[in-house]
Amino acid sequence: MTEKKSSKQKWSILEFYEESWDLLWKHKKLWILGLAANLYLAGGGRINLPNFSEMGDSNKEAVQEKQFTPEDSSVLGSSYEETEELGRLGIEDIFAEDASVDQESPDKFKAFFSNFENIKNIFASVPTQIYVLLGLEFLAFMVFSVILGLAASAWAEAALMKGISQAYESNEVNLTKASQFAVTKIKSLLWVKYIPMIRFIILTALAAIGIMIVTPLLLKQVAAAVSMSLVIVALVGTVAFFYLFIRLQIRVLYAKWHCVIDNLSGSDSFKKGIATTQGNMRKTLLLGFLNILLYFISALFFIIPFVIFAVLLGLIVFLSGIITSFSFAKLFSIIPFVIVIVALMIIVYSLISALIQVFMHSVWYLAFKAIGKK
């Protein structure tokens, strides 16, 4: 059972797991926040691209009343008579089964589009500004989608962390308050998650470039020494990179909890995260390793049944093809069954992932509280 904890508790990984397991099943409202954290990329939004089907009636009539001229045929690459006849045909007339056109019109239509040069001329007739505009709108859409996805991710994680804090501190989860609070922490949490990482990447890239330039200059007298030194520097640099990267991730981990629990800004949270990490690196690494191992073991409970199902389904199809005459009709007959099973497995997987999210965040909350605020 989850009860209100003191500001600092004993560091015990086994107790972290036991309390997190109890929290998971007592406060099922957290499952909703876990689903949100697991499906954060579902955040929507779109930029309205030009919709030519919504043109005004006057524009439609102008397009319908457009008559081709001999000058237009030079662009389309066909004779004026053929172009004019196609221009008189509406879309409904072309594709309707009972179109009241002579037998030669469909042949002319097919012949018109069978020529690749004609199609190329059509695309070439489109103004370059249209392609530029579409490209810019697509780029804006992609940038907007990425920003929206990052914001949704920060919101979902902050809401889950706040909900877990509510469960331990007040023994009650208020989804509305957790969600509203998370909105105010989007900017700070994004700062904590990405600004330190961007700085780290820039500094390590500059350091690597500097080492690659300086080392040959210092040892240019002996070619063998240069190559050997570069190998040693590369190995040491790789080890140092991963060490500093892991250290940064731990700082960011605790900084996120300071950001949500202490309601700090992004920069202040990261400073607190650095202080919290000092002296707690080894036990945090051990807990992180056990969490990763536990995560993969939990994932196997989903992957193994899925593999078994796929193998059995393949055997059924294979044996049915041997025993009876194989036909695609029989194969297609089981497609609805396969779709239903796959849909159910996706739903189950999403729920399991949500539970794992809640459990892991609860473990890290207890670890954060056990280390204490510095």
User: How many whole angstroms does the radius of gyration measure?
Assistant: 32 Å
Our measurement of the CA-to-CA distance between the termini, rounded to an integer number of angstroms, reads 28 Å
Assembly annotation: single chain
Q: Which spans of ≥5 residues are poorly predicted at pLDDT below 50?
A: 1-7, 41-68, 72-80, 82-104
- What is the N-to-C order of secondary-structure elements (H for helix, E for strand)? HHHHHHHHHHHHHHHH
Structural class: mainly alpha
Strand content: under 5%
Helix % is over 70%
Number of strands: 0
Structure write-up:
The two termini are about 30 Å apart. This protein is globular. Mean pLDDT is about 75; it is low at about 1-5, about 40-70, about 70-80 and about 80-105. The protein has about 375 residues and is mainly alpha-helical. The protein has 16 helices and no strands. The chain is about 80% helix and about 0% strand. The protein has helices at about 15-25, 30-40, 55-65, 70-75, 80-90, 90-95, 105-115, 115-125, 130-170, 175-185, 185-220, 225-260, 265-275, 280-325, 330-335, 335-370. About 20% of the residues are buried.
